[in-house]
Automatic annotation (TrEMBL), chain A:
Enzyme class label: transferase
Keyword annotations of the record: Pyrimidine biosynthesis, Transferase
Molecular function GO terms recorded: aspartate carbamoyltransferase activity
Native organism: Paractinoplanes pyxinae
Matches recorded under InterPro entries: Asp/Orn_carbamoyltranf_P-bd, Asp/Orn_carbamoylTrfase, Asp/Orn_carbamoylTrfase_sf, Asp_carbamoyltransf, Asp_carbamoyltransf_Asp/Orn-bd
Lineage: Bacteria, Bacillati, Actinomycetota, Actinomycetes, Micromonosporales
Stated name of the protein: Aspartate carbamoyltransferase
TrEMBL record, chain B:
Residues spanned by motif PRPP-binding: 105-117
First-tier enzyme category under EC: transferase
SUPFAM superfamilies linked: PRTase-like
Lineage, uppermost ranks: Bacteria, Bacillati, Actinomycetota, Actinomycetes, Micromonosporales
Key words of the record: Glycosyltransferase, Transcription, Transcription regulation, Transferase
Catalytic reaction(s) noted: UMP + diphosphate = 5-phospho-alpha-D-ribose 1-diphosphate + uracil
Family classification: Belongs to the purine/pyrimidine phosphoribosyltransferase family. PyrR subfamily.
EC number: 2.4.2.9
Pfam annotation, one family: Pribosyltran
Protein name listed in UniProt: Bifunctional protein PyrR
InterPro entries noted in UniProt: PRTase-like, PRTase_dom, PyrR, PyrR_bifunctional
Length: 307, 187
């Protein structure tokens, strides 16, 4: 088993499948009366969050607690970081406290890679800048597999702000490893020119959502990340949602079995309409529940064995 | 460390037909001790406990026409030696419909050795529900207990040395039925 989860590219197909299978067992345990497992008793997991996050932090916290690990939450606000402490010094502090795993979210791409060099424990990337978010890709893959029964040969469209999306990058890497065919869809300003080739040569790119929808098993809508946009990438929010937003009319173009995903948080009315988000084909709430199982699987596989 | 020669000292303890007779006997004993297996659930401990539990249920069905619920209980997450080995993959936990609350649970495993697996199974069971009682059926008891645990149904007692290992093969997993004792010479 791997020591860190910094990138979805750290995972080969057998390892990724092992994580998804483990997540399946963890999900089965979520249904019983006592949800807690003694597995990681005495281990310490630090949630090191330099960026705001609700679901990811809570999800990691719930996952670690269900496995009986001790959880220390660290958010940049109200810590020494606001006094100017560097990531390295914070890392050394955590190291001295004996963290067995550090779950890090950071606005700078590559922060988990640096951190892994400074601490002895495992590092789990919970989102770094516009780079990667591997546990989101795992829970997405798990959701697809449990809804559609397979990943191999699945046709997946990832739609919207690919440029700023760490979710898109991790998903392309993981889904390709597991045999799915990914198409990136969005306005040309939000799809980097060589991204398909850089991530995996099998990835396709399209600028026309309507022509892609009829061939898809999964349509994953990305949030338009206005907080990361310094320039204007499209003329107006209305124009964006007319061309790339998923509404009921567009959803009807998808095959009967196809599902709609969104990593959250959603801009309702922008990339997805409320009717689509709340429809039975949307897996958005399921994705949150699966997130806990997927993260339990990752923590177990990283920390459960001999250090 | 000297590699033991292949099959240098292996001895077949139970042949296929011995193994079938032993399973038949345990099935009869379960029927006898649980007054007809009423309110009884068989839970196999992966890996080889699961097909054994299924076989016991099939034999009980053949003898008495009773369908006894069968499930599996994975104990990996409850092991006390997780940190001594590389991470283990999880097995399946599938409780039969109706659960285990208020029922008599018979845990089924292939080999009883230190007793630590059974201890973990009891902990796992405790988190799954509250059975009215718990019993243990094993194909082979090889001794060397490290915990105060004993089996209610034993297929065969095999006195072993710590250097030996007991290898249970079952058709469902290994392609043949047999129990073998190996090793134990040069330690």
């Amino acid at each position: 088993m791997i020591k860190h989860l910094r990138s979805a590219a750290d995972l080969d197909a057998p390892t990724a499948t092992l994580i998804l299978d483990t997540a399946g067992e963890m999900a089965a345990l979520a249904g019983r009366e006592v949800k807690k497992l003694p597995t990681l008793r005495g281990r310490t997991v630090v949630n090191l969050f330099y960026e705001d996050s609700t679901r990811t932090r809570i999800s990691f916290e719930a996952a670690a607690k269900r496995l009986s690990a001790d959880v220390i939450n660290f958010s940049a606000k109200g810590s020494s970081v606001s006094k100017g402490e560097s990531l390295k010094d914070t890392a050394l502090t955590l190291q001295a406290m004996g963290a067995d795993a550090v779950v890090i979210r950071h606005p700078a791409s590559g922060a988990p890679h640096r951190l892994a060099a400074w601490v002895d424990g495992s590092v789990v990337n919970a989102g770094d800048g516009t780079h990667e978010h591997p546990t989101q890709a795992l829970l997405d893959a798990y959701t697809m597999r449990s809804r559609l029964g397979r990943l191999d040969g699945l046709r997946v469209a990832i739609v919207g702000d690919v440029l700023h999306s760490r979710v898109a990058r991790s998903n392309v890497l993981l889904l390709t490893t597991l045999g799915a065919q990914v198409t990136l869809v969005g306005p040309p300003t939000l799809i980097p020119v060589d991204i398909a080739a850089a991530l995996s040569p099998a990835t396709k790119v399209s600028y026309d959502l309507d022509s892609v929808l009829p061939d898809m098993d999964v349509v994953m809508m990305l949030r338009v990340q206005t907080e990361r946009m310094q320039d204007s990438y499209f003329p107006s929010a209305r124009e964006y949602s007319r061309r790339y937003g998923l509404d009921l009319a567009r959803m009807r173009k998808m095959p009967e079995h196809a599902i709609v995903m969104h990593p959250g948080p959603m801009n309702r009315g922008m990339e997805i309409t409320p009717e689509v988000a709340d429809s039975s084909r949307s897996t958005i709430v399921e994705q949150v529940a699966n997130g806990v199982s997927a993260r339990m699987a990752v923590l177990y596989l990283l920390l459960g064995g001999k250090a | 460390m000297a590699q033991p020669r292949a099959d240098a000292s292996s001895k077949i303890i139970l042949s296929a037909s011995d193994l079938h007779r032993v399973v038949d006997r345990i099935a009869h004993q379960i029927l006898e001790k649980t007054s007809g297996a009423t309110g009884t659930v068989l839970l196999g401990i992966p890996t080889r406990g699961v097909p054994l539990a299924e076989r016991l249920a099939a034999r009980i069905h053949a003898f008495e026409g009773i369908d006894i619920p069968v499930g599996s209980l994975d104990i990996t997450l409850y092991r006390d030696d997780l940190r001594l080995h590389a991470t283990r993959a999880l097995g399946k936990t599938e409780l039969p419909g109706g659960g285990i609350d208020g029922r008599r649970v018979v845990l089924v495993d292939d080999v009883l050795y230190s007793g630590r697996t059974v201890r973990a199974a009891l902990d796992a069971l405790n988190d799954e529900g509250r059975p009215s009682s718990v019993q243990l059926a094993v194909l082979v008891d090889r001794g060397h207990r490290q915990l105060p645990i004993r089996a209610d149904y034993v297929g065969k007692n095999i006195p072993t040395s710590l250097a030996e290992s007991v290898r249970v093969s079952l058709t469902e997993i290994d392609g043949l039925d047999e129990v073998k004792l190996t090793g134990g010479e040069d330690q």
